[in-house]
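If your schedule permits, I should be very grateful for your opinion on a structural question. Kindly check, if you would, that the fold set down in the tokens agrees with what the sequence suggests. Thank you for your consideration; the sequence and its tokens are set out here:
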Amino acid sequence: MSRRLFHFVAIVPFLFLCSNTQAQRTPHPASIPLQINGQVRYAQGGRPAELVLVRLESFGGGIAGEFTTDRNGRFTFTGLASDLYIVSVRVAGFKEVQQQVDLRTQLTDYLQLQLVSDTRVSDSSPTKRTGVVDANVPSKALAEFERGRDAILQAKNPDEGIMHLENAVKIYPKYLAALLLLGTAYMDQQHWDKAETTLRQVLALEPKTTAAHFALGELYLGRKKYSESENELLAGIKLDPNSVRGHLTLGRLYYEMGDITKAGPQVGTALQLDLKLAQGHLLAGNIWLRARQPDNALVEFEEYLRLEPNGEFSEQAREAVQRLKQALAKH
């Protein structure tokens, strides 16, 4: 275990940052890139599975990454350590797909994953719904969605993107992917009421849409509606206990509420799932400061700067590091 992790766990166990899996890995030389690429398709018809969440887990435990497939159903994980991994895809109404990849004996692998309809689920069952994947989307709605998505994610034109997404929803009101992206686009533009209404529509159609719960949790957190935020974040984490986003946001919520005894475990869990989570180290540093543990705060701020030397809060972190070093030097 690294000195940083040992120090963090030994002093304040409630942050739960122990990660034996990371320590046991024996990476290839840094000059050799390790990656996993692949494509997800529907078994019936062979259509690419767009906007499907692909999860990468270390065989020894812990999330190594998550990727949402593009319009061609493709996904990629890069910068991986030499390890044994499990790639999994779970979509409501389809059988779970899992495939093992051994990057201890090869540098890269390419997977072809197929989603097979789960005949054990009745057509009338709510779990038959496919979340953000819907084979019933009309072609015109799909075209509007793709224009909107590209305008937002590629052209960085949110106004145009919102217009196309609104058109997609008008054509097909049950278009979950369009509603979800539209809700987050409204959030980015600070159209809070529209965002809340749209995300509520998503949950009305599919209550198990974790992304909608987390987005609402973030929306309520930004508006200081702490009780509502906590409810949504806990609902999302109940559905996806290994969500880095969920645990980190819940940690932020408790930190803003002034409850570091609750904030610590959430941030610790997020970092256990993803040790390269820069925002997690930044928040951990602030928690240590509030707990009056400046030496530990210094370690976390330095780790944040190592991961994001030009990040949004890098200047503030550098100032904090300088002040902490000066203060610690006096003792």
Notes: Residues 1-32, 121-132 have pLDDT under 50 and may be disordered. The longest helix spans residues 314-329.
